[in-house]
Amino acid sequence: MVSSNGPRPTYPLATPLKLFRQAANAATVLALAACSSTPLPPWHPAAAVPPRPAVAAKPAAPVAQALTDTPAVAQPVARASITETDASHTAAPDSAPYSAAVAARFPDPAIAYSTPGLLPGRTSFSSNTEVADWLATLSDKPSRGVHPSVLRIGLSQQGVPLEALLLTRASSPDAPTVIATGRPTVLIVAQQHGNEPAGSEAALVVARELAQGLLEPLLDKINVLIVPRANPDGAAANQRVTANGIDMNRDHLLLNSPEARALAQLGHDYQPTVVLDAHEYTVVGRYLEKFAAIQKFDALLQYAMTANMPEFLTRASEEWYRRPVVSALKSQGLTSEWYYTTSTDIDDHVVSMGGTEPDTGRNVNGLKNTVSMLIETRGVGIGRLHIQRRVHTQVTAMVSMLQSTATRAEQLGQLRSYIDREVSSQACGRTGSKAIVAAGPTSAQYELTMLNPSTGADKKVSVDWNSALELQTLKSRTRPCGYWLSAASTAAVDRLQLLGVQVMRVVDAGTVLGDLYRATSHSTGVRQDVRGSIADAQPVNLTEVELVRGLVDTPQGSFYVPLGQPLANLVLAALEPDTQNSYFANHILPNLSDTARIMAEPTGALEKLP
Q1: H or E stretch including 162?
Q2: Residue 52: exposed, middle, or buried by beta-carbon count in 10 A (0-12, 13-18, 19+)?
Q3: Which of 448, 240, 452 is nearest to 353 (CA)?
Q4: Distance between CA 237 and CA 245 in Å, rounded?
Q5: Distance of CA 4 to the CA centre of its chain
């Protein structure tokens, strides 16, 4: 549904941008669409797939010669979204959590972005109403064959509309018509955490430039969905979590919050090929306490890194996306590093390269076979300090992701088709594939560059490092043909379908060879991530199991979830019961007996659920 018409605020127009002179003009974007691209690697022998890069103190070497770097083009945005300014920085205000010498390391860019929350003299970021008005204004003015449409995708816990802006040349905004264009869709999600505003402001900039600015030619090759504010209640309260205390970025498998459910439905309907999740990270806080240092990098980057990720998807994420983003940032004088974080326990000095659990948007979207990238700018805990630079960093990364998708549009279709078939073919252990039930990072040493809080000079810090580049298998089993679920398992079925998983209903009662789960130990606890206990964490079942082979009764009205489908790896994350994120652990499946692993193809009648 499209937002209602009405008076909309206006923002100052700007002269065309003259920054990025080495590549910054509309012709660059037009040329991008016609750019030739490197063929995908052959989809044949396993030997053609190189091993994952070894854990090292620096990013790994290229994973395959067949996948080459996409030339990075630092395309600006202009016109109504930005104005030119000088590149001088201002001294750190009295409220800054570090010295003026540190602030001097982060001068403003040579442009100033203009959104409601970035206007001169503004002390607050764009309000929920202003974000909605911005999207509505864009949808009111179709331009040059672009049809911007505001999609109402749900309501927040406090009743605020959750909205996405669809930018496409499709004749209609309905999902089947958009998918029928054959163009890959990019989904940009910002501000899942309410106290991380830069991504939201950047998303508004990019939305305008796609609708009526320099980025509009990209829509010849791609469709774009932008959710500039995924957590409006958290944004209004300037808090990380949703209104009822859920960390929605840990809710993309369980789908307990309406906000996460809205994003799941959007993904289910429009089937994005690429997802960019925009966040900000803590700059001072526990880093100063643990390491006597300040966070340095403009951007931290990471793609999906969790168990059962398809190898070619990982390679494409690295070669076709992360490296071009790094190059684009570097061309703008912006620094980057792998994403990392550390626990809230001050005595724990381990640094982790992001979570490897299948619960975040980054990892769940990866298990949906999408290129899924996280971009984090330095912002939490510093208010509006360096906000233009933070937004500039986000815009640069977003534009790079859009350009890479336009350049690789045809190859991405081939890649997605191949991965969907490859994942589906592994059911029943046909290819010898194991179902990895639990995996963890590899321990290493890493040298982080941080900043001296007084002098602003670089400070090298050697840390114990949990690398997600190479995951260690902690628990694995033969991959089943699918899972049987009891007729009472409707809550689990609802969530699986919302994620896009195909579920079948048993029409005729029967029996089939399978493995039942038998508990060998049981306790309760709370879900954990690398930061510590997850916000709002409710008690979960922490159960160890053994498998008991036998005949499984499949009564009429019960359910069957086949693994011969593209989202099979997402099913594994939800239904193997002995992990902290499983539906059994989180009481979505009340009893261990509600699930069984089916080890032979069912012969009874099944029907697809609508």
Answers
A1: strand 161-167
A2: middle
A3: 448
A4: 12
A5: 30
Instruction: Specify whether the CB–CB gap between 153 and 189 falls below 8 A.
Output: no
Amino acid at 205: V
Q: Of 329, 366, 542, whose CA–CA distance to 468 is shortest? A: 366
Helix (H) or strand (E) holding 190: strand 185-190
Q: Of all residues in the chain, what percent carry a pLDDT higher than 90? A: 81
Domain 26-32+77-425 has CATH 3.40.50.2300: no
From the list 352, 348, 370, 349, the residue with the least C-alpha distance to 361 is 370
Report residue 342 as tokens.
């550390």
pLDDT computed for residue 413 by the predictor: 96
Burial class (CB in 10 A: 0-12, 13-18, 19+), 330: middle
d(CA 494, CA 496): 6
Map out the domains of the chain as residue ranges. 26-32+77-425, 438-473, 477-608
**SS3 assignment, position 149:** strand
Query: What number of residues does the chain have?
Result: 610
Region of 536 on the Ramachandran plot (φ > 0 left; ψ -120 to 50 alpha; else beta): left
| C-beta separation of 139 from 2 below 8 A | yes
Distance CA 385, CA 455 (A): 18
What is the rounded distance in angstroms from the CA atom of residue 183 to the CA atom of residue 273? 9
The mean per-residue pLDDT over the stretch 186-213 comes to: 97
Which has the minimum average pLDDT: 43-47, 109-113, 194-198, 249-253?
43-47
d(CA 606, CA 481): 14
The answer to whether 463 touches 348, Cβ cutoff 8 Å, is: no
| pLDDT computed for residue 18 by the predictor | 31
291: exposed, middle or buried (C-beta count within 10 Å: 0-12, 13-18, 19+)? middle
Q: Please state, in angstroms and rounded to a whole number, the distance separating the CA atoms of residues 541 and 253.
A: 16
Q: b/e string for 238-258 if b means 16 or more Cβ within 10 A?
A: ebbbbbeebbbbbbbbbbbbb
Q: Which of 355, 369, 351, 428 is nearest to 581 (CA)?
A: 355
Coil, strand or helix at 177: helix
CB atoms under 10 Å from CB of 65, counted, come to 9
Read off the amino acid at residue 487. A
How many Å apart are CA 485 and CA 350, to the nearest integer? 40
Average pLDDT on 483-506 reads: 98
What does each C-alpha distance from 369 to 40, 233, 479 come to in angstroms?
Answer: 16, 30, 18
Cα–Cα dist 452/99, whole Å: 10
